[in-house]
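job 3f2a | input accepted
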Amino acid sequence: MKDFAGRIAVITGGGTGMGRELARQLAAEGCNIALCDVSAAAMEETRRLCTVDGLRQGQRITTHVADVSDAVQVRGFRDAVAREQDTDCIHLLFNNAGIGGGGSLIVNGQDEWERTFNVCWGGVYNGTRTFLPLLQRADAGHIVNTSSVNGFWAAIAPHIPQTAYAAAKFAVKGFTEALITDLRINAPHIKCSVVMPGHIGTSIVANSRKVQSGNDTDVMTPKEIAQARARIASMGRDAAALSDDEVRKIVTDRAKRFLEEAPTSAAEAARIILDGVRNERWRILVGRDAEQLDARVRAAPERAYEKDFFESFESEVGWRLGR
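job 3f2a | predicted structure (323 res):
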């Protein structure tokens, strides 16, 4: 699929980050967009930006509030897409929605752990399963599933557990790789790609806090502070010695650093992904850090979780995620 003009793309997690930038770049090429997110306000901003950038006559940008971890809501999203886009088919499916949290199976609660897993993995499965009939009716289709470097390396720093997120992203990678054969046999006009970004400048840290807590404001609730303390404790730090204000500052500073210090912007990530789709690449690494980490893990898999492995990688690419 070299040309996106006149096609219909479904994008989950379309309110911010890579989802927003995918929507803007696809819209600029004349693609119709159906956005899904848990934040109506964020999607409206994405739609506004697409409109400001300029739309072609008859081009449609629709928004739909849905939790991708809920199969019933995803089916409702599909039905709304068919109705509001006036279509019985789609051409592009970007299963992009994701959150963090629940890093430790031991320290973090089951609800937080499973919330992360169910959004990051369940959202991909629900999206693919639900929209597959619409892809099958198209003349050509492409499924793009967002995994992560945590889909081939289940860590982010020696002192930060990543069990929920990494488990989900490994599942996304394996699922997408298995789809290659399944689609080739049973739906050969549909291609698929697994996207593995490194550190991308997005609001996932701030957004994850809001989704995990159900609080869409910037003011942390007592529940959020308790969850943040558990995450800090899971890193081996004495969280009990921290005041609530100190916990808030740690959370705010981490979200700010993640967004502002990333080596790859969300816009650049979207460009790399769309180039990969055009070239029918099933494996799309996003960012120099992702490429270098992939090479390092392949070269020394038995060392991948040793402290010196991370320190050498961090020094070479300038990662600051563990700080």
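job 3f2a | The longest strand covers residues 190-197.
job 3f2a | closed
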